[in-house]
Amino acid sequence: MPNNTSQLDLSQLAVNRDKPTGSSLRIKRSWLTRYVLPGGILLGFVCLFAWATRDSFLPAQSITVTPVVVSRAEIKQEGTPLFQAAGWIEPRPTPVVASSLAAGVIQEMLVIEGQHVKKGEPVATLIDTDAKLTLGQAEAQHTLQQAEVRRAEAALAAAKTNFAKPLSLQAALADAETLLSKTELELSNLPYALEAAQTRQELATVNVRRKENAGEAIPGRILREAKAELATAKNAVSELVAREPLLRAQLKSLTQKRDALAENLELLTEETRALAEAEANLAVASARAEQTRLRVETAKLQLDRMIVRSPIAGCVLSLEARPGQWLSGVGSSKSQGSSAVVGLYDPKNLQVRVDVRLEDVPQVIIGQPALIETAVLPSPIDGQVISVTTLADIQKNTLQVKVAVNDPPAVIKPEMLGKVTFLAPPSPISEETTGESPLRLFVPQDLITESEGAASVWIADLTGKTARQKTVTLGHGTTEGGLVEILDGLQPTDKLIVAGRESVTEGARIRIK
Predict the structure, then answer these.
(1) Which long-range contacts (CB under 8 A, 24 or more apart) does 262-268 make?
(2) Are residue 414 and residue 355 in the same domain, yes or no?
(3) Which CATH number belongs to the domain containing residue 320 in this structure?
(4) Is 22 a domain residue?
(5) Are the CB atoms for 320 and 337 separated by under 8 Å?
(6) Residue range 200-250, pLDDT digits in tens
(7) Cβ–Cβ contacts within 10 Å for residue 258, how many?
């Protein structure tokens, strides 16, 4: 085996420690630890500080808040008597008055107190003599005016006929054309007539000259007759000569008359005016007939109002008038006299007006059940609270509450005294199994915003530092401190915005002062 030890070069395995091989690595590590790492830590602290103090720099509205008022509710079983109060029975909602709609004197009363009447049944009559006379006069005027309408209709029919067929204008035009034709014929025959007249004149002249030359052989009478015939011939010639300008003037006049009649026949000016006037006269007559018809209707209504009728089906509560009494009528301008005749009420609609002590008023709720006791009934009857009045009695320290009588018996009458026991209404809160009273939430009434039948309040979202609007369900009535119970929509830990809620919007940033 050959010996190769002498051939190995161990110098290749030696390390030269004098050569600076790691200088670039040390420079890179020094830059990272000296600048990048401290800068990142400083930037993180700056971001953390900015996030912690963001509320001081971001715009936010300053507000004040108040907590929700929380109390324990006292649960009472439904139907448990709460308190009692006295009152009196009256019609619901109010008595009804049968009034006279017309002024007059009562002739007869047709009902008595306690009598049942139907709707529209007569309860009294008034003296109707004047009303009958007024109706007769109105009917006569209406009949007369109807005759005027028929006359106007006839005139309008004639005007329409003349407008459609103007026979008078056509006849006048035909006469004018006939005269014009006759005049033209005479004017055309005038030269021939003049020539004949001149011929007769010449013959008459020759005849006279012959007879004059004959001397005494011709009797004087014949000579005179010949001269007279000559004079007649001369006059005829003169007349014909003078007639030509007259005929030409007459021809011109007749031509103009014919043209005027033809144009009038085309325009129908007078017929158009007559037609429009006839239509206007008919409109006037019809309007006056309508006025007289309305007078007749008014007179009939006035006569019908001489009978006072019941406006409802019910029972007579009181007689407000008597025979011989003057009634002014509803809407009359006269201040003297009354219009009320009979007071009525519906026996099926009665209520009890109860004087409730002010300390018991918070227990009264609309729709609350009640029991009504009267001396005429052996046992109480059911009732229900329908309204709470707004004006308290300062002397009795009470507030009036109206309790409707459910299905009132016939023996109950208005003005009877009664006693009402107010019962606990159904509670919307169920009693917990632990036996603890449930929580009731209250808020000040002025913090509630009502719009379109919905109630809402503004609360502060402490987590997001924003304003939120919550819709809530209100309870019945308010407490003495002006607090309103909230049945749904709020939590006991909610904070209500007090100051600044008028200008906040949904989701707006807020700062609690």
Answers:
(1) 262/173, 264/169, 265/166, 265/169, 265/170, 265/173, 268/163, 268/166, 268/169
(2) yes
(3) 2.40.50.100
(4) no
(5) no
(6) 888 888 877 877 777 776 677 777 887 788 888 888 888 888 888 888 888
(7) 20
